[in-house]
Design goal:
4 helices; globular; 117 residues; mainly alpha
Length: 117
């Protein structure tokens, strides 16, 4: 669920965050088996968001620290592992939306909210 606490102050970054969160919340509310390809697409959107966020931060002079970039790299590895696990059927698809939402929310609170400080 999207709350103002997750707002970082840049309309483009905030919109991408809200869109990812919305996709995950819709999945969470839909009964039945989740499609791996749908989950993989959300992972791809999240990975693209990291790239977009870095570009926006650079273009707008935001405080994109080395630690923040390293966190993006770490999360990229984690997301790719989740994606591979989905493809190999070695992870419960039902657990993935919550995992992705936790990754998104904690990253916003730990890193992104300091971009425009």
């Amino acid at each position: 669920m999207w709350y103002s606490i997750y707002t970082v102050g840049d309309i483009d970054i905030d919109q991408e965050h809200a869109n990812i969160d919305f996709m995950l919340s819709v999945l969470d509310s839909e009964p039945g088996e989740l499609e791996s390809t749908l989950l993989e697409n959300i992972i791809d959107v999240t990975l693209q968001h990291f790239s977009n966020e870095e570009t926006i931060a650079k273009e707008r002079g935001y405080n994109m620290t080395a630690q923040h970039l390293a966190k993006h790299q770490q999360l990229t590895k984690e997301l790719l592992i989740i994606k591979q696990s989905l493809q190999n059927n070695t992870i419960s698809r039902e657990s993935v939306p919550v995992m992705l939402q936790d990754i998104l929310h904690s990253h916003i609170l730990e890193c992104d909210r300091f971009l425009i400080a």
